[in-house]
Design brief:
Strand order of the largest sheet: 1-2
Distance between the termini: 42 Å
Number of strands: 2
CATH topology: Four Helix Bundle (Hemerythrin (Met), subunit A)
CATH architecture: Up-down Bundle
Helix content: 55-70%
Strand content: under 5%
Largest sheet: 2 strands, antiparallel
Mean pLDDT: 89
Number of domains: 1
Length: 177
C-alpha cells in the first residue's frame, strides 16, 4: 500500500468514526478501533453462541469454510493481528483449531478478542506509521488495523448468512432489549 493511499484509508476510517457518532479525541483512529473491537467481540461471540452444536459444521456450499472453521479462523486472525499490534515478543492466547469442540472454539474466540482489547489499549494514533511484523512481512500499524477491521466485518457477514440459512437471526438483526 502506498503512503498516500494508506493515509487516505486511515483518513476515511477517522471520518467514518466521526460520522458514526464516535466522538473524536486525540486518537480518533485507534479509539474507533477499540470501540469496533468491543462491538465485533459482542457480535461475533454472539453468533458463535447462537449456532447450535449440530449446525457447527454447516457450510453454505461444499467449497467454503464451515461455521466452526470461520470462528476458529477469526480467533487465529485476531491473535496474529493483535500480536503485530502488541509486539512480536507478546505471548498470544492459544488459538483454537477448527476440529476443537464448540465450547473450546468459543472460549478461544473470547480470549482472542480480550487479547485485541489489551493490544489496542497500548497504542495510539501517533504509531499508525510504525512498521510491525504482520504475517511474516513488514507492515504499518495502520495497515494492520485496516486489515483487522476488514476481517471482522467480512467474517461477521459471512457467519450471519450461515445463521440465517439455518433460521437464526444474527446479533445485529435482533430487536434491541
Amino acid at each position: 500500500m502506498s503512503t498516500n493511499l494508506g493515509g487516505v484509508v486511515v483518513g476515511l476510517i477517522a471520518l467514518a468514526s466521526v460520522g458514526s457518532g464516535y466522538q473524536a479525541t486525540g486518537n480518533p483512529v485507534v479509539g474507533f478501533m477499540r470501540r469496533l473491537a468491543r462491538e465485533s467481540s459482542r457480535n461475533v461471540v454472539g453468533e458463535a453462541e447462537s449456532m447450535p452444536l449440530d449446525k457447527w459444521s454447516f457450510k453454505a456450499t461444499p467449497q467454503v469454510m464451515s461455521f466452526g472453521e470461520i470462528m476458529a479462523h477469526i480467533a487465529d486472525d485476531n491473535n496474529q493481528s493483535c500480536r503485530a499490534i502488541a509486539g512480536a515478543n507478546t505471548q498470544t492466547p492459544i488459538t483454537p483449531k477448527p476440529s476443537d469442540a464448540r465450547d473450546q472454539v468459543i472460549a478461544g474466540l473470547k480470549l482472542s478478542f480480550a487479547f485485541c482489547d489489551s493490544a489496542l489499549s497500548k497504542v495510539d494514533d501517533s504509531q499508525l506509521g510504525k512498521n510491525v511484523s504482520y504475517y511474516g512481512e513488514s507492515a504499518s500499524l495502520g495497515r494492520v488495523l485496516i486489515g483487522l477491521a476488514n476481517d471482522w466485518g467480512s467474517h461477521y457477514s459471512q457467519a450471519a448468512v450461515y445463521l440465517r440459512l439455518n433460521g437464526i437471526l444474527p446479533p445485529t438483526a435482533r430487536p434491541r432489549q
